[in-house]
């Protein structure tokens, strides 16, 4: 281990033999496993957690990828399967490990002031509740559960090595099921589809442009300052939302009508939504028409757009693109009716990304994975494994990158100004698009990482042949 650490601490800058290859970290893994990262933009530093079956190594870098410090320790006992989240308090970094049955969470604290590593275990009784989400917001880790057959959420708050429990009772609020009947929040969360499992909520982050795979989920949650904004599109006529203030755990619910769509005999409509920068974008479609509505948080309609099967899409800035399991395997579709048909018969989705006051909106759909696994997380794990299934919370951007693999994806790219007025012109390739293309060519790299840091997007991976960890950088 000493030799391993010495190699790690000797970080060399590269003479650029590739424009994108930015740094190489000499490293000799014997048992390579996953890693995750903690980015602190305010401190201009990033912390990488390397782990294998025996050890955990934390390495702190500055914005030039020079090693600032490192701590090594044994990993928690083997019954703790994976890291489900993290939190930060001053110079102390906490990783949270869960058992398969989700009844115990151990926190491993790396104190970079004292150079000590400590473990603390919390026993949580989930007899009458089920976990639905793990998420870190403003350096605090939250485990969110729903009490069975109720509209009560429990928030387990992990902050500076301590655990507190907060309860949000939404029993007085009205929720609607897919068939527009009054239901509990439990029922809303406990309904699965062929795409997403029951008792799961997909978090959406703007660290990287959210994939159509992530945003195809009907239940999503967005961190908005120190609040969580939940959206539910189980009902095809309404988007239902819950806003939880994480300062005082007060809650507000609201419903937003989906765009009007003239019904077609024997055809069931589809719908979804996406929230970004205080605006809710909704889509409703059938085989003949796709309607888009942009609303502010108060519910005022700001803009509307539509796609008709027999007309050219006036607000698209790209061809109609179909990916067949890879960004390197694409075909161009000619007609709007092909776009509508493929979106309608798969899983409709929208993804939105802001850059330099320009809105990049992608409209399309994704298929199930070709191997038939269905939802990426949740459904294949069942109820007992939901918390472990969401362990990629710490590796959101990597999971986002890999979410298109083995899927058929159809989409158009559109450009708008900040008021959602359409802008003419070509869509420039974003850093994430360049990263996707490179990652498919570098599939021999293992223990991959993806993170946004210091205005750049980074892709990292371990090269077993060269015994080094490589970092590639991309800019929009």
Q: Can you give a write-up of this model?
A:
This protein has 476 residues and is mainly beta. Helices cover 10% and strands 48% of the residues. It is globular, with a radius of gyration of 23 Å. 40% of the residues are buried.
Q: What do the pLDDT scores average to?
A: 87
Shape assignment: globular
N-end to C-end Cα span: 39 Å
Low-pLDDT parts are: 1-19, 372-393
Q: What amount of the residues lies in strands?
A: over 45%
User: Helix proportion of residues, in percent?
Assistant: 10-25%
Could you give the count of β-strands? 33
Q: Figure out the total of helices.
A: 7
The biggest beta sheet, please?
Answer: 5 strands, antiparallel
């Amino acid at each position: 281990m000493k030799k391993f650490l010495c190699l790690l601490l000797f970080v060399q800058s590269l003479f650029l033999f590739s424009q994108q290859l930015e740094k190489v970290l000499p490293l000799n893994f014997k048992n390579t496993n996953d890693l995750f990262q903690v980015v602190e933009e305010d401190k201009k530093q990033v912390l990488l957690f390397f782990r294998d079956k025996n050890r955990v190594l934390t390495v702190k870098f500055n914005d030039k990828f020079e090693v600032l410090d490192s701590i090594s320790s044994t990993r928690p006992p083997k019954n703790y399967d994976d890291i489900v989240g993290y939190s930060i308090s001053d110079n102390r970094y906490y990783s949270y490990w869960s058992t398969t049955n989700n009844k115990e969470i151990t926190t491993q604290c790396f104190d970079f002031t004292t150079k000590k590593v400590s473990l603390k275990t919390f026993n949580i009784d989930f007899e009458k509740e089920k976990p639905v989400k793990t998420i870190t917001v403003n350096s605090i880790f939250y485990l969110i559960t729903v009490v069975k057959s109720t509209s009560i959420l429990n928030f387990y708050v992990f902050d500076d090595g301590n655990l507190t429990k907060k309860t949000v009772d939404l029993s007085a609020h009205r929720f609607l099921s897919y068939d527009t009947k009054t239901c509990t929040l439990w029922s809303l969360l406990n309904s699965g589809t062929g795409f997403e499992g029951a008792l799961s909520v997909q978090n959406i982050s703007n660290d990287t442009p959210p994939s159509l795979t992530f945003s195809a989920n009907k239940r999503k949650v967005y961190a908005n300052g120190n609040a969580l904004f939940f959206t539910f599109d189980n009902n095809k006529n309404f988007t239902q939302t819950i806003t939880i203030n994480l300062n005082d755990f007060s809650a507000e619910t609201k419903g937003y009508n989906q765009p009007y769509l003239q019904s077609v005999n024997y055809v069931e409509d589809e719908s979804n939504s996406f929230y970004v920068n205080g605006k809710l974008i909704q889509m409703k479609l059938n085989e003949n028409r796709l309607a888009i509505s942009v609303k502010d948080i108060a519910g005022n309609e700001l803009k509307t757009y539509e796609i008709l099967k027999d007309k050219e899409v006036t607000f698209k800035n790209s061809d109609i693109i179909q990916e067949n399991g890879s960004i390197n395997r694409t075909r161009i579709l000619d007609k709007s009716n092909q776009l509508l048909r493929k979106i309608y018969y798969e899983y409709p989705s929208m993804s939105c990304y802001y850059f330099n006051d320009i809105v990049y909106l992608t409209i399309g759909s994704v298929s199930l994975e070709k191997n038939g696994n269905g939802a990426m997380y949740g459904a294949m794990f069942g109820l007992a494994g939901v918390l472990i299934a969401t362990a990629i919370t710490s590796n959101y951007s990597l999971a986002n990158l890999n979410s298109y693999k083995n899927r058929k994806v159809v989409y158009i790219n559109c450009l708008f100004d900040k008021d959602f007025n359409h802008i003419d012109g070509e869509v420039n390739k974003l850093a994430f698009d360049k990263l996707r293309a490179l990652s498919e060519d570098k599939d021999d790299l293992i223990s991959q990482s993806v993170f946004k840091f210091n205005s750049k997007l980074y892709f990292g991976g371990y090269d077993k042949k060269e015994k080094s960890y490589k970092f590639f950088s991309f800019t929009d």
